[in-house]
Each structure stands twice: as structure tokens, then as C-alpha cells.
Amino acid sequence: MDILHLIKSANLLLGTGVVTSSVYLYVTQNAKIPLLISLAIVIAGPIEDLLTNYVEESPSLSPNDKKHYTDFIDQSTSLAFLALLGLAVLCTVD
Q: Which end of the chain lies in a sparser environment, N or C, as judged by fewer CB atoms within 10 Å?
């Protein structure tokens, strides 16, 4: 097993654990902060990967268009990630 595969597997396992724990905490304790953090992780991880792969595999887009759209996806998901983390921080204020 090469190091890249090991890191990808660790990311998947850790992300799944965080999201599962967050959903459990929301259902059992109505804890919203972990849920916001999990949503940020899902957007910046698998959703970004899915959208990027869709653009990169599209035969109808030129290389310049692919670059434009992947940059747009990267910046948009980063913005959503930071907005959700900001909301999580604001939820800690009494």
C-alpha cells in the first residue's frame, strides 16, 4: 500500500467518523455546531471532488473552460466551508 492510498483511506475514515458523530450528537443532544462543521467537511471534501471530476471528465468543455470551472468550484466550496465554520463559531457566542 503506497502512502497516498494510506492517506486517502485515513481521510475517508476520519471524515466518516466526524460526520457520523456529528449526526449522532445532533439527534441525541440537538448539538448544531458539530453538524455545521460536518457540513463544511462534506462540502469541501466529497462534494468538491464530485463537481471537479464532473467538470474534468466533460468532453464538451475546452481546457480553458475546465480550468475556469474547477477554479470556480474550488473558490465556491472554500467560501461555503469558511461560512459554515464562521456560523459554528457564532453559535458559541452567548
A: C
Query: Sign of torsion, CA 28 33 39 42?
Result: negative
> Which domain does 72 fall in, by range?
3-90
C-alpha cell, 44: 469541501
What integer is the mean pLDDT of 11-17? 94
User: Grid coordinates standing for 11?
Assistant: 481521510
To which H or E segment does residue 40 belong?
Answer: helix 32-42
Helix pair 32-42, 3-29: axis angle to 10 deg: 150
pTM attached to this predicted model: 0.86
* Cα-based angle 60, 64, 65 (whole degrees, multiple of 5): 50
